[in-house]
Amino acid sequence: MHIRGTVAGEVEVRSVSTSYGESELAEVPLLLAAEDDGERPPTRTFARDGDGAVSDPTSDYETTTVTLWNKWAESADYLEPGLEVLVTDAKEETYQGETQYATTGDSYVVVEPSFLVNVTAIRNWVQCPRLYYLNKLSGVPLNYPVVKGTLVHEVFGDLLRGRDLEESIDARVDERGLELGLLGETPEAVAEEVRENAKAIEGWLEQGRLTEEDSWRSEQLLISETFGLRGRADAIRRGAPVELKTGKNLKKEPRFKDKVQAACYALLLEEHGGDVDLGTLLYTKNSALDRNEETGDLTPAKEFTMGDGLLKFVVRQRNELAAMEISGDVPTGYEGSAKCEYCFEQDTCMVVSGRLDQESKAGQIATPLPEEEREYFYRFYQAIEEERREVHREYAKLWEQDAQERADDDRALIDLKFVEKRPLEGGRWELRARRTSSANSKIREGDFVLASDGHPVRGNSELATIERLDDEVVLTADEPVEVTRLDVYPSELTTDRLLVAMHDALLKGDERRKDILFGRATAEFDEISETFIDNNAAQNEAVTKAVGARDCALIHGPPGTGKTYTIARAIRAMVERGERVLLSAFTNRAVDNALEALLEQLEDGVGSQTQRSGDGKAVSVVRVGSESGIREDMEPYRLERAGDPEDRVAELQNAQVVAATTATCGSRVMKEQAFDVALVDEAAQLTEPGTCAAINLAERFVLVGDHEQLPPVVRAENDLTESLFERLIDCHPEAGVMLDRQYRMNQRIQAFASQEFYDGELRPAEPEVAGRTLDDLAGVSTDALPPELQDPVAFVDVEGDGGQYTDSEEAARIADLIATYERAGLERSEIGVIAPFRAQVSEIASHVPDDVTVDTVDRFQGSSQEVIIVSFTATGSLEGPIFEDYRRINVALTRPKRALVLVGDPAALASDPVYERMLEWART
DNA sequence: TCTCTGCCGAGAGGA
């Protein structure tokens, strides 16, 4: 039976004499819960909250002792109270009348099984725990061996799927044009080298075909809920893992870390019903010239038998890694037996140790960072790792939640009916399924998802790209899966990049930059006499500061104040001065909006320049990002990654303006780029490390945003919730400018937000704005509206149905209001409805016509409408965290141009002072 | 059950 529980106290380790000799044992007090539903293997579980504390240790729970024998006793060192432990194939014993458990010869002990560890992470960890840590901190830089290795793997996969070798090489090399260009490689030379490696693979494949019909499967993503492992095996041949290595290995035996990697895949396969005792490592750089002296063997393949001992060793290593990650400790390198003098990362290791004043086996060089910087590092390291644990929790939900729960959570589409699988050129597959309901989910076109025939972890599943998602789902994948279900596949990519950005800012960052970030120096500016914007003093000052900033400028742009225009004008001025500019923001949408404004601005700019100097040179602009993320009309500016390396790299390198999300700024390709200025829009929605990803690439930076609107989205409550923008606005008032003229709202609409959030400083830019009403719109007459809707701000009293997250009475009333506006001549597309909860958004959407935009506050940020109707969805009181953040109400109230209607229960709203003031304002 | 976007996925190698 499997035993699962939390460590409930101190672990006792001792030696005992047995009939087999001296044995180690560890006695672990464990808190168990009742048997679960029996769907899974007989496992005893317990309930625990996020901090590892048992949430309700009542009579449902029982404490017992699990004895871990011999090697498993080693794990006792890090079995802190609160850690979760799973013991497979345990035996039950009775001791002094109490039931206890112990490991058997077949047992595995898994620490924190819900913490999914990557196979490659274990490989690094086995090599040296500190190497694992360093890789995490600084990422893998762009270098040729890595790119070549990736290429050979891709070609290998293609060969297994039956693709022609030359066709595969051509296509794969072409796809990596940009990277190869940055590395200064020619396609011919790379293709030749890949061909060399591929020959070794082909030769070996031929051998296999001569002997018997092999059964192959390429690149399968495997997840183990028992061992807490995930990884993607290069190939599986007759049920056993095959790992490809493009490095050289002339020894008889495979390298140990490679064996470890194969052993991880064996464990994964075992959970999926396999019985693996053989692993193959394919060293493709080994050629006929490297004939094995002993055996005379020409093959690059090295087979080895996978003993029980190796598999258990691997699990213990995984445990050690998981325990360290949970505790937040920093590895020193003493945990392993690697020799520092052979290590490629020795220098990096010593510098990191020195700068962060960490203990390390390699020793320290360089002087430590100032204490406040080290404190910052550890604070943000913790915060980012907390985010990572939240991502891990998302993975765990793949098996902890049942299908319906995941669908209700919008994380899965479970209603699919498989239609067909069709082979594509190049050996990949197109999969089609029909949707049988209109259930919504966060899955969208272009996403990477787990496509399965029933269960994302236990069933047959494959990573797939969503090509189309309407009544039918069209996917592409490496292998054919009879898909009936799609699950969101969580990714650690963002957290990885945050960590690297923070590391780079502190350890590679320029001293002056850090003085600014830590408030140790005052921001300086060049004198600029040019006038950039005639009729708006604040905007002109903002552009002047942005252009003249030697360190940074901070532009505070409340709703409707033309920050996008200001950004565009500033970039144009920078470009005209010959500077190279990075334009970034957190979301693709924000990047595209800013880019659109810039393109308009540049058209004007080039025109006027032509008039002035006769030099009408076009400015080259490039948008970096994935096809699915970039808005269609910006597609012509998208940097294509595939193609001739020289051309690709020239396009990027010569671009005067590069636009990309902050996440993309952390990519290997973007990290190779350098800019004079980084301009970050919607900076108040970015975490500090997120902002660093962009500003790390530039000499100076300009942040544009509004910290009175919504903060960054983070999973865990921690230091990431405050933006760098907000912090710098406080500590560098000399660098800040607030845009104080708004071009959006009627004066009456703007009054409350201005008073409440902007100290009354926000004003209409022009009389036309202040006095705008629905009457300005063609065919609309305010007189046709009932008296209560004739004022630009109206309150509609609806008592509500008392529902927690929905209110059908409000929804019905809103449908009436929309009909009323329509009768007065408004187009449906001119009306927007905002609700706090997604459930209420769906409720309202089911009451109103399709062409009325209904969405949550969060998703309305950044856009505006002629008429906005707000559904408060609260009866009696304003309970719930969503109402606590007043920035959300600021966003909702500042979306309309000409009319705002608040719908809700006055009694509920009056229960909070801010909402009460809002009520007064709306009713007068 | 509060709100939620990114990312070409993971992994590719060097003695």
TrEMBL record:
Residues annotated as signal peptide: none
This enzyme's EC code(s): 3.6.4.12
Superkingdom, taxonomy of origin: Archaea
A Gene Ontology molecular function term of the record: metal ion binding
Broad EC category: hydrolase
Location of region: Disordered: 36-60
Similarity-based family: Belongs to the DNA2/NAM7 helicase family.
Protein name per Swiss-Prot or TrEMBL: DNA helicase
Species assigned in the record: Natronorubrum aibiense
Lineage: Archaea, Methanobacteriati, Methanobacteriota, Stenosarchaea group, Halobacteria
